[in-house]
Amino acid sequence: MNQDQLDKQAATLFQEMDLIDRESGLRLDRNGRWHHEGIEVTHEGLHRAMTRWLAYDAEAARFIIRVSDDFWAWVDVDDAPYQAHLLTLTEQGLL
Asked: Which of 32, 56, 54, 57 is nearest to 44 (CA)?
């Protein structure tokens, strides 16, 4: 899938979002996999982008996916949303 297709897929996800209550239908499961309305997001680039856009709204005590200040939505997160993907053991410890 090229970047144009990825952009279209992301745009479709956000077009379907309810801009009144900002519920996205997105869920990040405990294994770090994204789902939209129960269907796993398998495109690696879109997965990375959504993970990059993930943020925490401390005031609401909820996670959000934020593309810009005006373009954001609530996200359901099953467990700790961040995972270590690569660690290097050095004499100074883990990097």
From this structure: 32
